[in-house]
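COURSE: Structural Biology Practicum
ASSIGNMENT: Worksheet 4, Part C
STUDENT ID: 0417
INSTRUCTIONS: Below are two proteins. For each, the amino acid sequence is given first, followed by its structure token string. Answer the questions at the end about the second protein only.

PROTEIN I
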Amino acid sequence: MMWLAWRQFRTQALVAVGALAAVAVAFALTGPGLAHFYDHTYLTCQAHGDCGSVTRALVTRYSIWTHFIQAMILVPALIGAFWGAPLLAREFETGSFRLAWTQSVSRTRWLSTKLLVVGLAAVVTAGLFSLMATWWSSPLDRFQDSPFSVFDLRDLVPVGYAVFAFTLGVAIGALIRRTLPAMVVTLVSYVAARVAFNRWVRPRLESPLRLSTKYHLPFSTSQSTGVGLKQSDWVLSEQTVNSSGKVIGQFGGIGPNGDINFSGIGKKVQYFSGVGRCPNNFPTSGNAGGVIESGNTRRFSPPTHQVLEAMQKCANSFHLRELATYQPASRYWSFQWYELASFLLLSLVLASFSLWWVRRR
């Protein structure tokens, strides 16, 4: 039975091996260059505190490869559609199940073997893709220092996604019994499940932490927005509240349009838009900042130091606070294990359903 399962799956397996080999060669040719660039250029400029041009060069040089790695998020979905959905749907559609299920091998053993062979192939394929992407991207990940932004493409969870997509495709194929519709429904269902998990489940795998800090203007010379948070932390929400506790802004923005705006600068009365009238006076001269257009280019001209200090003093007078809800970066690996276990458990449920359905029908 193992030999038969492999014979029926060998075409898909050879395609997967070819794709893995192509990706491995591409990453082997470009990965050492990226690591060398990071070690000898970026770390050097970082020590001098001047990495603007180097950062732009790093992002530009390897942008096509980062987009390619982002596209690898489709690998589990393709496994579900092309490996999982046809597994039973094709047998029903062609009528070959009548022959397969009247032999000496029972339905349970027949399907269990197929699930084992193709499921293991899905684990190996997704695991190798994830391993290569994680290795190649490690310099960029250290540079960006935002692990939760690439959570779906790194380390353990792609394996869980692949197994889930495969068993989801098998279950849908058993129900629909038509290969092409089963493939389409598998893709849609997989995307819906992933979106729902990312939005409502992952942020609550552990109780998020909360932090309340004094409000600072994003462009002030004082501490920046998000005091007490690390760049690597995953910020779920960030609200600005006034002295009475009313929410007046989100993620550093104030008011309905989310802009930080002071009106009346250079005049007798100044207003912090969306908050109220400033009790202090602003400098009567000096650049208040704003967007400057020159031909086809636009750039932001920051306010002068004196105007910035007056803006921050005005904001301080309203006793504004920032309330941040976040998951610390230290939970990254625990979240990887929680999410992997969740999708493997869902996969077990789907595989059990497929076995039950085949025996029942």
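PROTEIN II
(use this one for the questions)
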Amino acid sequence: MLWALAALAGWALLRDEAQQTIALVLAPVWLFCEIADATSNHSGQGVPLGRFLLVWGVLYVTLFLGSKRRAVAGILFALGALAAVAGAAVLGSEGHGWNDWALTPWTITWTWAVIAAAPLALACLRLRMVLLPVAAAAACAWVMPWLHDGTGGKLLAHALAAGLAVLLAWWGVRGASRALVNLGVVGFALAVVWFYSSDVLDKLGRSLGLAGLGVLFLAGGWALERTRRRLLVAMEASEVAR
């Protein structure tokens, strides 16, 4: 907490990229640790932590689109991408045994304020550039942990993860961000592999399942790469038209 406050004070005084980057890294790290401590005695602790990583990760990959502070934007994009992928992976694998209402009302209130309300408030600073993907990430973060039971619920969890990735790719085209388009495509690929490995692979024989995985990598990779290139071409054409 003290490191985060000192970094925020340094940013306010110096207004340079180094202090801004340090402040924007340390502040969410402090909040993450507070949530981890508040939920340490509860089963399924990874759920609130995964929610935090997903929402803040999406915030950081979109907040600095078009920013002239390239060092800040680049570092925070990389960290945000890792956080978003890690958060989605945690929410896709955990959920059993977790109950939001097992926490005290005060803990529920402030953890959700940190997980969703604070990122949405920051997103409102750049309303058109950030709000929709952050709101979508917050919705996915809330729903996904409850979708582990039943075939329909699992399919919806996969669909939500893939849909969020598609939204990020489209948002990258809209914001003329090659990095965000690439992240969205990679996220979609990971969602498809997650679906195959968790819901299809174990229903096939060993040899057939591995063969199907190879076909998925080859055919799916080829199709995604063509789609990615088309998106980038469309984005560049749109930039030229402007």
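ANSWER KEY EXCERPT:
Q1: The chain has two domains: 1-146, 150-242.
Q2: The mean pLDDT is 83.
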